[in-house]
Structures are given as C-alpha cells and as structure tokens.
Design a protein that fits this description.
It is a single chain. This protein is mainly alpha-helical. The chain has one domain. 50% of the residues lie in helices and 11% in strands. It is built from eight helices and four strands. α4 runs parallel beside α6. 37% of the residues are buried. It holds the Pfam family Bac_transf. InterPro entries: Bact_transf. One of its GO terms (molecular function) is phosphotransferase activity, for other substituted phosphate groups. Keywords: Exopolysaccharide synthesis, Membrane, Transferase, Transmembrane, Transmembrane helix.
Length: 189
C-alpha cells in the first residue's frame, strides 16, 4: 500500500505542478549559473547508491559534502527560500516514482557519511527506502549527529504506519523539520 500511495501521490503532484516547477527552474538559472537540478549520489535501501535529485539551492561548485559542513554563503538567496519551504525537495518525487525513495522514511545520506551509514546498518535502518521527509526531520534532528539520527530513524521503522506517515507529511507541509537548514542559518547569525 505504501508504494502504491507513494507512486500515485508523486505522479499526481508532478502532473499538476509542472508549470510551477518550470518557473522555479528558470528562476534558479537566472539567479546563478549552473543547472537548476542538483544530482548527488546518496545511500539508498540496502546501502546501494542512487542519484538523488533536488532543486539547486547552492552556488555551482560548492563542495560535495553534507549540508552541515557547507559554508552558509554557498546558499543562494532563492535557495534559502526554497530550502525553508522544502520546495528544493520536490524533484525527489521523481526518485519516488522510479522506486529509489519513498515519501516518508529516513533521509538519504551521502556515502561519505561513514559513521551514519554504519549506525544505520547496525540498527537496520537501511532495510527501508529513504524518504523525502521523516521522523528525524520532523523532530529537528540533522545529520551532524549520526548516532541520534540513526536511533530516531530506527524508531520510525519500528513504529511506521500509514497514519503515521500521513502525520509526518502533514507536519512537513506545515513547516516542521528544519533540522538540516537550522545548521546553515545558525552559521549566518
């Protein structure tokens, strides 16, 4: 049921919103040089790598490291708004369509985040598809604390339900889950 819902919801949203997404892509390109879509290898189910897509929110040439290790000045003005309202995540609906991700699950990390990958392996987190949003993000836990993040991801897997996923989606749509971006904003203050 989860996969069917993920597929139907992603397809419907992309079908309805493609004109707005096109405008966002043009705005990104007008603000800074580089592709509008950012592609990055992430760790998926079973520890297998996949290419994750997002709207580009940082200047082209920014180091390929976790967000909490990037200088705040790398984030573009438009990128800050896209990140704040989670709009940068919308291209991941394509990842959901092709089966690399789910709407809800542990956020996919970079292969270079060895501590997090190992903690997730140990706790069985890599047995599920990564998600666009998840329990850890709703609780404001970012990837700079790999042990805590993996523990909360494991808690999500133990308690996962369709109703719980709907609550997490609703929480995200209401603006909760700024864990990753909180680090970027704190650097600028």
């Amino acid at each position: 049921m989860k996969r069917a819902f993920d597929f139907a919801a992603s397809a419907l949203f992309l079908l309805i919103s493609w004109p707005v997404l096109l405008v966002i892509m043009i705005a990104i390109r007008l603000q800074s040089p580089g592709a509008a879509i950012f592609a990055q290898v992430r760790v998926g189910k079973g520890g297998h790598p996949f290419t994750c897509y997002k709207f580009r929110t940082m200047r082209a040439g920014t180091a390929n490291v976790p967000t909490h290790q990037v200088e705040a000045s790398s984030v573009t003005v438009l990128g800050e708004y896209l990140r704040r309202f989670k709009v940068d995540e919308i291209p991941q609906l394509y990842n959901v369509l092709v089966g690399d991700m789910s709407l809800v699950g542990p956020r996919p990390c970079l292969p270079s985040q060895a501590d997090l990958v190992e903690a997730r392996k140990r706790l069985g987190v890599l047995t599920v598809l990564p998600g666009i949003t998840g329990l850890a993000q709703s609780w404001g836990i970012d990837m700079s604390d790999p042990k805590r993040l993996a523990e909360v991801d494991a808690e999500y897997i133990r308690s996962q339900s369709f109703a719980g996923d709907m609550k997490l989606i609703w929480s995200t749509l209401r603006g909760h889950g700024v864990g990753v971006d909180r680090v970027v904003r704190d650097k600028t203050s």
